[in-house]
Write a structure and sequence with these properties.
Two copies of one chain form a homodimer. Chain A is α/β, with parallel strands linked by helices. The first copy, chain A, has two domains: 266 residues, nicotinate phosphoribosyltransferase; 174 residues, TIM Barrel, CATH 3.20.20. The radius of gyration of chain A is 26 Å and the shape is globular. In chain A, the strands form four sheets. Chain A has a seven-stranded antiparallel β-sheet with strand order 13-12-1-5-3-17-18. A six-stranded parallel β-sheet of chain A has the order 7-6-11-10-9-8. A four-stranded mixed β-sheet of chain A has the order 16-14-15-19. In chain A, 39% of the residues lie in helices and 18% in strands. In chain A, helix 3 packs antiparallel against helix 4 and helix 10 crosses helix 11. At the A-B interface, helix 1, helix 2, helix 3, helix 6 and helix 7 of A face helix 1, helix 2, helix 3, helix 6 and helix 7 of B.
């Protein structure tokens, strides 16, 4: 039992941060450290079996930075704690994010070490933003990347998101539906996502509807009367008998029968699809489609497609909704420059690329055969290598969005489609790669990294 | 870019549902199906390697049911879609949840097949509630169950939640911090969780703070001046050199040195802890504790404890925050009775226990040696087996909370502690069980299940 709302909104999001961000910021403030900082958000290694990730979540990161402020309730709470002085809390009340952001547009395939975004601004707000910016970019990149695999596995058949009930909380349900749209899903069952994002929503019926009726045939009849072009769930009792009940309904309704599809949700989906198809076809119901769901992931979808199972669309829930094989990324938000100097840390295995950077995607081939060959991570002011296209866009300046930071969800979806199509064929399969996609660090950035490391070793040791 | 808020609150939560819930409810409404339904929320099987789960999330499920209503924006959206009639949407505007709920109190260990909660009420609201009730109970049960393992592994040492940045969205961050408190964590880094739930918040410093200073020693000095009893992060450059910098600071400050602990965040934590302990002890800093973090989960925590590493507390983030080994449960919310009749479905492997039920935990032994021996799932009106204690409590009646539905977070935490202590020792370890904890279905419930199955086979086939 709690009297305060457990929901996060624009109004309280600034307080959704790690305590150490606030203690550090009070220290910066007290020490007069108000120089410009650069933070870089990137991931270190690909999850096992993955070939690339799809960048997503920038929109919510920018929304947070735009609306970032501590409201009266947050300030009252902080003032009541021993760590924070009244003077600091008052100063915090006026703090806004007024810095710059460069980022990979949503829908861009991203490889290890490449900045998904870089934040440059006064260190206080840039530091405080870490937790929520990471939380949102991490979540949506995890879910968009997983969904892209399911879409690839479905090989052109529609994939619909059924995951809301087992995704991790309400925010994951919303942002997931958004990320899925970017990744190319046909729709989501999440009605609020339809309202907020304008994404297509879809749904059929549940077993409970059939169970609430005294017989399956009666349930089908009632549902089809109200929703003539519906999808009927046939596996509540006996799947093939359920299909026969659909056929009986078709005979009963004659020309009024417009049911669009049946849904299989359990059992051996490949075999049941074949036998259901036969029953439907023999009854002249060739145009009734078969939709499959029930514990699917990209591997089972790919297996069904490979077997030639006559399935026209897939409903995918939990495995995609929690990205079961890779629910987390080793994403990091690291200080790479402060007060005009490159910064890094020397902890084993966690070497940082200092300063502001750019990522170039070097493409080869012409027209349809054009493909990404390698990426180069460089210093922000380096020239593009031959054939190299800069990926990081300037999306926010002085705390306000630039045109590149205003991208519709459909534009992000189109970018994901186009950019994924440019990847080498071997990256688009589900199998782990023998040879990963090459990501190089430019000579200029490498030299700068060594220079900074030498300086830091001299000072820090 | 979206003009509508992407945040879920009490005001729009009713629309955070699967589209099929709404289409089914319109069908129920049109068909005049307004009888009482019973829905049962349970999970089918334990994730691999798990011995029990810790029930959590009831508070948010009840909050949702209490505040459930479609606001003007939701109604406008639905009215604008082809599926829904104006008349139905108007009716929906007046719909409230006015039913009853029985539930396992938060912090109760729960086994496969046992209802975490049962909802009885008019079918419309009970059906519509499915998605969000599942979403919240699933999330918090996943996270509390994982955290209970980390707490067990730490064997009395403090465990602090560092997961917010990589948990799945803002809601997971909030509800996770709540679930972790129930499971026995010492605190969370999540400041807003501290504000909303009153749970202890904790934090140290990040590498960026050290990096923003020209040398580590200067960073330590400045931080300890502001926060004398702080925890200093020693691995930004060279861990043992960092520990020596702490020793130097202690010499410099003399009696004013009150630093509480150092934090190790990378490298071989067992070895670094031993060597750090030596350095600290040799300098007379025996009372400075060692806190460890960096990619920890219950197994690495247990290994550090088993090795006798001199670590006094653990910060655990991502692996716990996404429940990496088991990010999802096969939880289900199934219709088990409607209009006074038991209901089930016959899909393979998914057999339902019909009707309203009770779970009895049968205990054996006396005093300190008292332990749970087996559970019995029975019909709601059955008598308790000898030594059996009923676990499901009546928490809501007529849409309003009963006293058993008003439980503070600290009470839930205490319940988790006490109930977990009653489990047989073998269930509290991290290893998979050779023999699972016995869960029986009472003869009465089994007979009822067969009776319903026979009736349903007769009707549905």
């Amino acid at each position: 039992m709690s009297d305060r709302s457990p929901w996060v909104t624009d109004e309280n999001a600034a307080l959704l941060t790690d305590l150490y961000q606030l203690t550090m910021v009070q220290a910066y403030w007290r020490e007069g450290l108000d120089g410009d900082a650069v933070f870089s958000l990137y991931y270190r290694t690909l999850p096992e079996g993955r070939s690339y990730l799809l960048a997503c979540g920038l929109e919510d990161a920018l929304r947070f930075l735009e609306t970032f402020r501590f409201g009266p309730d947050a300030l009252e709470f902080l003032a009541g704690r021993d760590e924070f002085s009244r003077e600091f809390v008052d100063w915090l009340g006026g703090l806004r994010f007024e810095g710059d952001v460069w980022a990979l547009p949503e829908g861009t395939p991203v490889f290890p070490g490449e900045p998904l975004l870089e934040v440059r601004g006064e260190i206080a707000a840039a530091q405080l933003a870490e937790t929520l910016v990471m939380n949102q970019v991490h979540l949506q990149t995890v879910l968009a990347s997983k969904a892209a695999r399911v879409v690839a596995a479905a090989a052109g058949r529609a994939v619909v998101d059924f995951g809301l009930r087992r995704m991790h909380g309400t925010d994951a349900g919303m942002k997931g539906a958004r990320a899925y749209h970017v990744a190319g899903l046909a729709g989501t069952s999440n009605v609020l996502a339809g309202r907020v994002y304008g994404v297509p929503i879809a749904g059929t019926m549940a077993h409970s509807y059939v169970q609430a009726h005294d017989d399956e045939q009666g349930a089908f009849r009632a549902f089809a009367e109200l929703y003539p072009e519906t999808v009927l769930l046939v596996d509540t009792y006996d799947t093939l008998e359920g299909v026969r009940n659909v056929v009986r309904l078709a005979r009963e309704l004659g020309d009024d029968f417009r049911v669009r599809a049946i849904r299989l949700d359990s059992g051996d989906l490949a075999e049941l699809a074949v036998r259901s198809r036969e029953i439907l076809d023999q009854a002249g119901l060739e145009r009734v489609e078969i939709f499959a769901s029930g514990g699917l992931d990209e591997h089972s979808v790919a297996a069904l497609v490979a077997k030639g199972a006559p399935i026209d669309g897939f409903g995918v829930g939990t495995a995609m909704g929690v990205s079961k094989d890779a629910p987390a990324l080793d994403i990091a938000y690291k200080l790479t420059a402060y007060a005009g100097k490159g910064r890094l840390k020397l902890s084993p295995g966690k070497k940082i690329l200092p300063g502001r950077k750019q990522v170039f995607r070097v493409e080869e081939g012409e027209g349809e055969a054009r493909r990404a060959a390698r990426d180069v991570i460089a210093r922000a002011d380096e020239e593009a290598p031959p054939g190299g296209r800069p990926l990081l866009a300037h999306v926010m300046a002085g705390g306000r969005r630039l045109p590149a930071g205003r991208v519709s969800l459909d534009q992000a979806r189109e970018r994901a489609r186009a950019e994924t199509a440019l990847l080498p064929e071997r990256l688009r399969g589900l199998e782990p790669l023998a040879e990963p996609y090459p990501v190089e660090v430019s000579a200029g950035l490498r030299a700068f990294q060594e220079e900074v490391a030498l300086r830091v070793e001299g000072e820090g040791g």
